[in-house]
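Q: For a teaching handout, I want to show students what a protein-ligand complex looks like in token form. Below are the inputs, and the small molecule is adenosine-5'-diphosphate. Please produce the holo structure.
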Amino acid sequence: MPQNNNQNNQNGPGNNNRQTWWTIMLCLLISVSMFAFFGNSLGSSRSREITYDRFVEMIKDKEVEKVLLEDNQLTVTPKKQPLEGMDLTYSVTLVGDENGLNELLADSGVEYSKKAPNVGAEIASAIASIAIPLIIMLLGLRFIMGYMNKGGGMMGFGKSRAKSYVQKETGVTFADVAGEEEAKESLQEVVEFLHDPGKYTQIGAKLPKGALLVGPPGTGKTLLAKAVAGEAHVPFFSLSGSEFVEMFVGVGASRVRDLFEEAKKAAPCIIFIDEIDAIGKTRDTHYGGNDEREQTLNQLLAEMDGFDSSKGLLILGATNRPEVLDPALLRPGRFDRRIIVDRPDLKGRVNILKVHARKVLLDDTVNFDEIALATSGAVGSDLANMVNEAAILAVKYGRRAVSQSDMLEAVELVLVGKEKKERVLSKEERRIVAYHETGHALVSALQKDAEPVQKITIVPRTMGALGYVMQVPEEEKYLNSKNELKAMITGLLAGRAAEELIFGDVTTGASNDIERATKICRAMITQYGMSEKFGLMGLAETENQYLGGKAYLNCGDETATEIDHEVMKMLKESYEEARRLLNENRDALDRLAGYLIIQETITGKEFMRILHTVFKEREQQKSEASVEQERSEASVEQERSEVPVKQETPVQEAEISEQIPEEGK
Ligand code: ADP
Ligand code: ZN
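A: Here is the structure, written as tokens, with adenosine-5'-diphosphate included.
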């Protein structure tokens, strides 16, 4: 490496050379990896993805005509198309090695071929796999060298770090933040004062020094702070609380000092401290204390007291745990304003989706209201993520614009993870999962206070679920009635109930359901006054409720034991109810689970259609049975009295036989 480090001229010739070299390397790397990526996907046609399990089943059921293997990916041509004239193939990710596949296909009569792997892509990815780590190593080395030289060794750490976080113009405005109208309103005032501090000081108004943005992760606290800086056109200094405390004693405090020094020079400006709870935790002596953190906190307090707010220096802190903050931080003249940045409501979610879809091409099937309804509880970063995933999916499917089906798939991707097509479940396990999920969906559908079923699937997901039922409320709920909560509990326990009913044995698959159902029961008894036994007595206290905080029991030991008994009783009753519903609708359970095992996924509409068909058939059987009975009664009568009753029976029969062909449509 050329030794021009002592030369402080940033645009020196040596530096220029080096930059060119790096640029070339980077371009090379990018093109190699692009080739590796696209080279692979070039030849692939559009087809439906299925799991390997399903594929094995198809082979066993002799439904397969042809199999083509290319890089680990199988293209399966079925013998029979679902519809005449269709040209559908299935794609499957190979599980295990080729030997396993050969074994499976042996004697099956399936036409098997193998396409030579894309050699270009393979070479490219081999090069990339060597080049990438090498380049990362070189980059890292260069970074460390530069660091040592600039800062003059260890003690310079604090200084150079603080500097590297300045942003002259964030370029973010309030228009980029959606769904946090109250927070924006409170911050608008702050923007005005940063614009023209003089206007306020002339009158003698005291300016705020700091504000605390409080809310769960991903709700847009950082974004809001940047928007304040962007709107006021002032520089944005930022640091994360956890970075302050990661190093040696004294470094944190010196970083705070340096940061304020820099910021004061640049005022008017904003200092943003993310995760302020990491430095601002109560200074308790409980755990022996943390000297480093205490020093940092003391330095921060001193700096906040020391600066003159009329210069237009504003400190914004962000936290999702305001309750652990040291009271000293919250005193007047410090972070005395609290701005709540909560999870967005329905309208907020629609607006956030719109903000992020501004630069995305959408077709006219897209309906953000529907997406927002399905994403209750999601925060801004989740929604931003969904829009982006939907755009990626649209590209993957070869579409020109994002459609609603891409959006819905992206919702699942973000909320429950990717489909894990290569996961192998045994045939028996698939049956169990199918009955379990159908149990949830069926019992929900049979109760009038439950949320409608949107989708049932038994395709496993990367985030652990082996299958799940997606339910979407008809409208955003801010309140839940007792009946709705009970319906929820019964629906949750119905997965286990179905397992027991069908297989006579139960699995570990219900653990999450049980946990959730128990939580709801407990809350009904201790917080919502919904049990007969305890009535309206509040038995728990919640901490920090607007952030979904924890509830702590607040009662005597004996009462706590009684609560446990009451929870058990409620769960037992709900479970019995779920079992009863499933038992009475065994025909629907079998039919739906049967479909699910074959289809792997059923939409809410298909689900309701199948259910209604089962109900109609049941009616029919009933009326046929009663006609039968009437007829036999009638013939008895006839024999006895010789009075002709023939007139009525044939008419009824005709009506019924007319109904039958309609069913098939
Ligand atoms: P926090 O600081 O609260 O953890 P961030 O501000 O870092 O959350 O949010 C991460 C990203 O999520 C943002 O960059 C933005 O793309 C998106 N986002 C979060 N909240 C919102 C919102 N209210 N409006 C628009 N986008 C949002
Ligand atoms: Zn379940």
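A: Two things your students might notice: The pocket of adenosine-5'-diphosphate (ligand 1) is lined by residues 177-180, 217-223, 318, 352, 355, 380-381, 384 (CB under 6 Å). The first strand starts at residue 48 and ends at 49.
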